[in-house]
Amino acid sequence: RPELPPRPTRARQQDGIRNIVLSDPKKRNALSLAMLKSLQSDLLHEAESKDLRVIIISAEGPVFSSGHDLKELTDERSPEYHAEVFQTCSEVMLLIQKLPVPVIAMVNGLATAAGCQLVASCDIAVASDKSSFATPGVNIGLFCSTPGVALGRAVPRKVALEMLFTGDPISAQEALLHGLLSKVVPEEQLEEETMRIAKKIASLSRPVVSLGKATFYKQLPQDLRTAYHLTSQTMVDNVALKDGQEGIKAFIQKRKPIWLQ
C-alpha cells in the first residue's frame, strides 16, 4: 500500500488550549485543498468538548501562509475543482467564527492573500514585529475577492481597497494601527504573549465565553436597536447560567469564582 502523504497541519492540546500548526513550510504553508481540509478537521475535532477552551493557529517557517496553492488553480484542473477549493476555504473562515471557543492567530512572518484572510478571520491576532500582510493577487491577475471579505470587515474600507488594488504589503505596526491585529510584540515574546492571552481565556467559564462570542458576531451586522434587543436578551440568558450566578455571587462575596464548566 502506498504511504499516505504527511498531514499539512498538526495539532496538540493541553490544559484546554489546542495548538494547530500549519506545517508545510516548503510550500510556504499554502492553503491547498489538503491544507484547508486538514485545518478544518483540526478545528472541528471535539469542538464541543468542555475540555477545549481556546484554539491557537500558528505556522512553521518564515511564512505564516502564502494563500492558495496556485498550482491547483491552473486550467489543468476543472472549474468544479476550483469551486471546491474556494468553497472549502470559505467554510473554514466561517467555521472560525462559529466555533464555541475563541481562535487566536499567532503570526510570525508573511501572511498573504488567503493567508491574510485567515488572520483577519480569527477572533484575536497576535503578531511578531517582523510580520507583514498583503493581498497581492491583483499582481498575478487573480484579484483577492474572497480575502477581501474578511479584510474589509477587519480594517477600514480605504485601507482594504489600497491593499487589494495595489497588492502592496503592510507592516505589522500598520496592521495593528488599522485593526487587522490585536497586538504586536518582538519575535522572542510572541509565543509567551499569545499563551498569556490563551491561558487567561482558558481560565474563564466556557459557557459564558461561548455565549459571548456567538452573540458578538450575531449583533455586528444588525442596526443599533436590534443589536441592543438581541444582546439584552443574551444578558438575561447569561445571568441564568450557573457560571453567571457563581461569578456574581463570588464578586459580592469578595472571593474568586469557581467555574462549574
Automatic annotation (TrEMBL):
GO terms for biological process: fatty acid metabolic process. InterPro entries: ClpP/crotonase-like_dom_sf, Enoyl-CoA_hydra/iso, Enoyl-CoA_hydra_C, Mitochondrial_ECH-domain. The keyword Lipid metabolism applies. GO terms for cellular component: mitochondrion. Keywords: Fatty acid metabolism, Lipid metabolism, Mitochondrion, Transit peptide. One of its GO terms (molecular function) is hydro-lyase activity. Belongs to the enoyl-CoA hydratase/isomerase family. May play a role in fatty acid biosynthesis and insulin sensitivity. PANTHER family: ENOYL-COA HYDRATASE DOMAIN-CONTAINING PROTEIN 3, MITOCHONDRIAL, PTHR43602. This is Enoyl-CoA hydratase domain-containing protein 3, mitochondrial. It comes from Neovison vison. The gene is ECHD3.
